[in-house]
């Protein structure tokens, strides 16, 4: 779940109605537990897909950014959407450190080489053409994880490479994860920063109860 972004207040216009939590609890992406304890409004990361917006998930280490990307990847791979435009999207999951271990004359070549190491030998021969075609057709959703594991200068280089990729394939949608301590110039790829909602008391309690039941069972 993603924390609802703060509402823009336009001078001279009546502000939208807000619940008590939204009026009193500040937007704290670096401290998501605060919002969780007060039932701050949130929405699903999947709801951002139809907007076509590039998204940067900003949360501290250990808050589930990788899990959120993996979930989004699996949802896209199933293509179980009423919106046909979203149903035809193809997810590509990239682990950022792998990107800089590969050679290539362009961002798309380095991307293909980085992902190819996880592809089976049976599909490897056709994978390059498939990626190129998917990006050209505007069907690609690139999910980039592990940027928070890179030093700041390399984070900046990663953002610039994504910008170059966007300049070549303008319709690609990018979802990436970054840390609250440093995330580079996200405006270069016009990424909307969002924060994961933390777990509150009840979520922790339910998780521990379920864990205990499964532990006794197995």
Structure description:
The longest helix is centred in the C-terminal third of the chain and has 17 residues, at 152-168. The mean pLDDT is 81. The strands form two sheets. Strands 4-5-6-3-7 form a five-stranded parallel beta sheet, with helices on both faces. A two-stranded antiparallel ribbon has the order 1-2. Strand 5 (140-145), helix 8 (152-168) and strand 6 form a beta-alpha-beta unit. The chain starts with a strand and ends with a helix. The protein has a domain at 45-195: P-loop containing nucleotide triphosphate hydrolases (Rossmann fold, 3-Layer(aba) Sandwich), CATH 3.40.50.300. Helix content is 43%, strand content 14%. It is of the alpha/beta class. The protein has nine helices and seven strands.
Uncertain runs with pLDDT below 50, 5 residues or more? none
Work out the strand percent. Answer: 5-15%
Please state the structural category. Answer: alpha/beta
| N/C terminus separation | 30 Å
Radius of gyration based on Cα positions: 19 Å
CATH architecture group name of one domain: 3-Layer(aba) Sandwich
Q: Supply the CATH superfamily name of one domain.
A: P-loop containing nucleotide triphosphate hydrolases
Total strands: the figure is 7
Indicate the CATH class of one domain: Alpha Beta
Number of helices: 9
Biggest sheet architecture: 5 strands, parallel
Shape: globular
Order of helices and strands: EHHEEHHEHHHEHEEH
Write out the strand line-up for the largest beta sheet, numbering strands in chain order: 4-5-6-3-7
**Considering DSSP H and I runs of 4 or more, what fraction of the residues is helical?**
40-55%
At the fold tier of CATH, the topology name of one domain is Rossmann fold
Instruction: Output mean pLDDT.
Output: 81
């Amino acid at each position: 779940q993603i924390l609802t972004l703060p509402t823009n207040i336009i001078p001279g216009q009546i502000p939208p109605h807000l619940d008590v939590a939204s009026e009193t609890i500040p937007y704290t992406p670096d401290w998501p537990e605060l919002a969780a304890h007060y039932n701050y409004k949130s929405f699903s990361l999947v709801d951002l897909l139809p907007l076509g917006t590039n998204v940067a998930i900003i949360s501290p280490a250990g808050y589930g950014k990788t899990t959120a990307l993996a979930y989004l990847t699996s949802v896209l791979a199933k293509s179980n959407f009423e919106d046909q435009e979203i149903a035809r999207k193809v997810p590509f999951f990239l682990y950022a450190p792998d990107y800089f271990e590969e050679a290539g004359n362009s961002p798309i070549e380095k991307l293909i080489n980085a992902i190819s190491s996880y592809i089976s030998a049976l599909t490897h021969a056709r994978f390059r053409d498939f990626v190129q075609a998917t990006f050209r057709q505007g069907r690609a959703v690139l999910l980039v994880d592990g940027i928070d594991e890179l030093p700041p200068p390399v984070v900046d280089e990663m953002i610039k490479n994504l910008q170059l990729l966007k300049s070549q394939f303008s319709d690609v949608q990018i979802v990436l994860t970054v840390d609250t301590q440093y995330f580079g110039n996200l405006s270069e790829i016009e990424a909307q920063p969002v924060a994961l909602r933390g777990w509150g008391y009840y979520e922790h309690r339910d998780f521990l109860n379920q864990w205990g039941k499964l532990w006794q069972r197995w």
